[in-house]
């Protein structure tokens, strides 16, 4: 009996040591992300990130008028005023704090909010992957590193924009849905999912995608557990979400005539570049237009800076394309190994359904992006970042599968080192020498 207790104690201590080691690695990734973010911040002039000045104008409008702005097609400066208010209300706190310290440009301090949200997104990425694959800490760290050191993600994490809060809510939603599939639905989970959906309504219209994903997650949960209370649970989630965010939809309906302000948005962006410019004005075929969008989207997913003016070297995108192609080819056998190599049937089913949910997340975000780009020419990879956790997981799984089995355990370290090198390269070769010069700073 005493021997068994000693063995259990040693096992517990070993597991605790392993967990501590991986948490230390995660802490290192987050710290490096913050250090790199500070450097990206310093060398990226305010307004050089996508729509940053307009997002800042939203916050300044709230401070000046002490109310939420009303979107108008005639207001060319505050053209982000159609956005839901949560990020900007949080930003006011950082604005006022910087103003109290005598900052000349207090709105730039709101970048700190984005950096904090980005750091939380890294932790959520690690937690989501670890919850699905608790024995595979290397995979969790590699996915966290992918998100932390992705150059364009670093750029957004130090810009005034609601993108980071949107991404974080998608991540927390994925974490809660993964927990439901792996451990079952609880009252707490239902409440938290409702809060995430409600806060999503107050953050960005893209977060509406979370609603069908929650329905799909509960369909998968029903197939696993055959729970007859699924409809009541969904009703509870949607009820909580409408209590939190429904007022914003009603406000839009009263002000603009529809729940999301789409009609007023269309008026304001009539002069924005559209597919017709390329199809008719530049004579591109539909196929060539699709290739153009795909090329720009792929490049800007990894990193294109200064309002799509500063690209990394062509060879960088070439090797990233090769790596992504190799990852895509190897993804199917990688997923098959994840599902089939399990002793318990239920564990295999949970992994299968959860990966299907992540695939659906990527698919819905991609469909929304495609629809948007057939209305407006907006080939920016950042619009795919709500699905960054599934993207990072699938990319790392595929890359790891490419490695021979004898050295596969080194794949996570390889991914982190490569992504960290890419982040430094983008900073030193593109951002530091070019952005300050283009925007007339320093």
- The first-to-last residue Cα distance is 72 Å
Helix/strand class: mainly alpha
Percent range for β-strand residues:
under 5%
User: Order of strands across the widest beta sheet?
Assistant: 1-2
Order of SSEs: HHHHHHHHHHHHHEEHHHH
Low-confidence stretches: 8-13
Number of strands: 2
Largest sheet: 2 strands, antiparallel
Task: Describe the overall structure.
- Helix 14 (314-340) packs antiparallel against helix 15.
- The chain is built from 17 helices and 2 strands.
- The relative contact order is 0.12.
- It is globular, with a radius of gyration of 23 Å.
- The chain has a two-stranded antiparallel sheet.
- The model is unreliable at 8-13 (pLDDT under 50).
- Strand 1 (304-305) and strand 2 (310-311) form a beta hairpin.
- With 442 residues, the protein is mainly α.
- The N and C termini lie far apart (72 Å).
Which structural traits does this protein have?
17 helices; globular; 1% strand
Write the layout of secondary structure elements.
Layout: H1 2-43, H2 52-65, H3 86-100, H4 111-132, H5 137-149, H6 151-156, H7 163-183, H8 187-201, H9 210-225, H10 230-256, H11 262-268, H12 275-281, H13 286-302, E1 304-305, E2 310-311, H14 314-340, H15 345-373, H16 388-402, H17 411-438
Helix pairs in contact: 1-4, 1-5, 1-17, 2-3, 4-5, 4-7, 5-16, 5-17, 7-8, 7-9, 7-15, 8-10, 9-15, 14-15, 14-16, 15-16
């Amino acid at each position: 009996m005493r021997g068994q207790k000693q063995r259990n104690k040693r096992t517990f201590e070993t597991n605790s040591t392993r967990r501590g080691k991986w948490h230390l690695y995660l802490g290192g990734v987050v710290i490096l992300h913050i250090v790199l973010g500070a450097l990206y911040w310093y060398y990226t002039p305010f307004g050089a990130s996508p729509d940053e000045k307009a997002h800042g104008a939203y916050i300044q409008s709230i401070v000046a008028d002490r109310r939420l702005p009303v979107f108008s097609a005639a207001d060319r400066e505050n053209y982000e005023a159609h956005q839901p208010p949560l990020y900007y209300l949080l930003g006011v706190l950082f604005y006022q704090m910087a103003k109290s310290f005598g900052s000349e440009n207090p709105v730039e301090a709101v970048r700190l909010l984005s950096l904090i949200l980005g750091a939380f997104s890294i932790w959520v990425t690690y937690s989501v992957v670890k919850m699905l694959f608790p024995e595979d800490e290397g995979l969790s760290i590699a996915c966290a590193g992918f998100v932390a050191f992705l150059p364009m993600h670093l750029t957004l994490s130090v810009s005034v924009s609601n993108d980071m809060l949107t991404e974080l809510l998608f991540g927390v939603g994925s974490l809660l849905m993964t927990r439901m599939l792996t451990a079952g639905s609880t009252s707490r989970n239902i409440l938290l999912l409702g809060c995430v959906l409600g806060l999503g309504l107050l953050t960005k219209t893209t977060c509406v995608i979370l609603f069908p994903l929650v329905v799909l997650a509960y369909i998968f949960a029903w197939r696993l557990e055959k729970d007859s209370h699924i409809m009541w649970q969904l009703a509870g989630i949607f009820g909580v979400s409408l209590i939190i965010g429904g007022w914003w939809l009603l406000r839009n309906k009263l002000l603009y005539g529809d729940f999301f302000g789409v009609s007023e948005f269309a008026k304001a962006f009539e002069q924005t570049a559209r597919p017709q410019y390329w199809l008719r004005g530049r004579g591109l075929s539909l196929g060539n237009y699709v290739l153009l969008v795909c090329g720009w989207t792929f490049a800007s997913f990894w990193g294109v800076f200064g309002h799509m003016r500063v690209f990394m070297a062509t060879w960088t995108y070439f090797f990233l394309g090769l790596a992504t192609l190799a990852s895509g080819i190897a993804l199917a056998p990688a997923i098959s190994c994840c599902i089939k190599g399990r002793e318990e049937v239920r564990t295999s089913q949970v992994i299968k359904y959860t990966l299907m949910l992540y695939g659906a997340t990527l698919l819905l975000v991609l469909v929304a992006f495609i629809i948007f780009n057939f209305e407006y020419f907006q080939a920016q990879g950042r619009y795919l970042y709500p699905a960054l956790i599934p993207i990072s997981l699938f990319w790392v799984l595929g890359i790891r599968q490419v490695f021979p089995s004898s050295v596969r355990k080194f794949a996570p370290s390889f991914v982190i080192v490569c992504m960290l090198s890419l982040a430094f390269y983008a900073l030193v070769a593109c951002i530091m020498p070019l952005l300050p010069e283009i925007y007339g700073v320093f």
